[in-house]
């Protein structure tokens, strides 16, 4: 194998396209697109983010939801990543989004995004948001046998090298099972 060096770059695959939704101090919904996020424990998520209207909202409410962008919502999900809520107060509506208040945290669920993590802010330091996952909810339309079905959810990933969004692929193995053949 012959390798090519690219230097220090954020070239990880796949990067989930996460849509963070919050309410502002007046109760208006807002959303932003973030790709640098990861589940860091069974009930914890960490997201790297800069200074945004969302960070103001997090400080005001202490809560947020995280949804995965989907193939069907790529335009609206991309829009909330390229437009500032500080400049465009109705950014949420312009993206084509509608909100339903979470029953677990003071944050909106985005009706058009069928799965969400409902979170409380644990900390926000040095650009790293850490949230406690209080609940995960999903629309029945993306369930198969009572479980979230990625084929129905159709989440997308961000390609940081080519600045594109990618559809998720097919199953290639069983986690905690495929490697058993080497035991």
Describe it.
With 183 residues, the protein is mainly beta. The protein has one domain (15-182): Pnp Oxidase, Chain A (Roll), CATH 2.30.110.10. The chain contains 4 helices and 14 strands. A 7-stranded antiparallel sheet has the order 3-2-6-9-10-5-4. It has a 3-stranded antiparallel sheet with strand order 1-13-14, with no helix packed on it. Strand 11 (143-144) and strand 12 form a beta hairpin. The longest helix is centred in the first third of the chain and has 9 residues, at 53-61. The radius of gyration is 17 Å and the shape is globular. The two termini are 27 Å apart. The model has no long low-confidence stretch (mean pLDDT 96).
CATH architecture title:
Roll
CATH superfamily: Electron Transport, Fmn-binding Protein, Chain A
Distance between the termini: 27 Å
The whole-number mean of residue pLDDT values reads 96
Q: Any idea of the CATH class?
A: Mainly Beta
The chain-level structural class is mainly beta
Tell the overall outline: globular
Strand content is: 35-45%
Count of the domains: 1
The CATH topology name reads Pnp Oxidase, Chain A
